[in-house]
Design brief:
It contains seven helices and twelve strands. By secondary structure, the chain is of the alpha/beta class. The chain has one domain: 4-Layer Sandwich (CNF1/YfiH-like putative cysteine hydrolases), CATH 3.60.140.10. The strands form two sheets. The chain has a six-stranded mixed beta sheet with strand order 1-2-12-7-3-5. Helix 1 packs across helix 4. The chain is globular, with a radius of gyration of 16 Å. 47% of the residues are buried. The N terminus is likely disordered.
Length: 229
């Protein structure tokens, strides 16, 4: 008899959104795990994430990241970024941070969102990557621009070589601020020319996505994943 994990793994493709602009680079695994059918998500955040964990792990396996350590950020709507520049073997959660940059292969960076934008950064020339959580406050504090600067400072990445991808996130008229547009502007101002946006509004499709605003805080979290091969 198949286990619950086996069943979730079999259906993982239906809940995993991929980004062609990142996939065709051939140096990373990038995905956005959408709404998980059948999981109750009206509890507090910690309980919701616990309930979603099995499905998220199944999606990791489906993506070929079974044995990769998963690093997650607390997401405090700030602009602090973890620099992962040494090998790591164990899963780890970073309190007080909203994103990562890394040059390490086979490490899964994870950011949870439920209306905020997950912003993916990949430099195919020198094989470095970053992933940040940027909502209204994070965008105001320029976390995307800070990630670009951190990639340049710590790893020597040229902003013009970066490929940037914006995940689904809430957008007008469902939200009063178009922070996706602001993120794109910040990236262009920092020297990025290859910017891709899903242009999907999470509040417009509650069958596929969680939306903190549309569901009045009683909702789950999508998981953005990025790792270098």
């Amino acid at each position: 008899m198949a286990s619950d994990t086996d069943a979730l793994q079999t259906g993982a493709e239906q809940i995993v959104e991929r980004f062609p602009a990142l996939d065709r680079l051939g140096i990373c695994r990038a995905a956005f795990i959408k709404r998980i059918p059948g999981i109750e998500v009206t509890n507090d955040k910690a309980e919701v994430l616990k309930r979603l964990e099995t499905a998220h792990r199944a999606a990791n396996i489906n993506l070929g990241m079974r044995d990769w350590p998963l690093l997650t950020a607390e997401q405090v709507h700030g602009s602090k970024i973890v620099v992962v520049d040494a090998p790591t073997r164990n899963d780890r959660h970073f309190s007080g941070y909203d994103g990562f940059i890394t040059n390490q292969p086979r490490v899964a960076l994870g950011v949870y969102v439920a209306d905020c934008c997950a912003v993916y950064f990949v430099d195919p020339k020198i094989k470095v990557a970053g992933l940040v959580h940027s909502g209204k406050k994070g965008t105001q504090s320029q976390i995307a621009a800070k990630a670009i600067q951190a990639l340049k400072q710590h790893f020597g990445s040229n902003p013009s070589d970066l490929v940037v991808q914006l995940s689904p996130c809430i957008r007008p008229p469902h939200y009063e601020v178009d922070f996706a547009a602001q993120i794109r502007e910040q990236c262009r101002a920092a020297g990025v020319t290859q910017i891709h946006d899903s242009e999907v509004c999470t509040a417009c499709d509650l069958k596929s996505y969680y939306s903190y605003r549309a569901e009045k805080g009683k909702t789950g979290r999508m998981l953005a994943l990025l790792g270098l091969l």
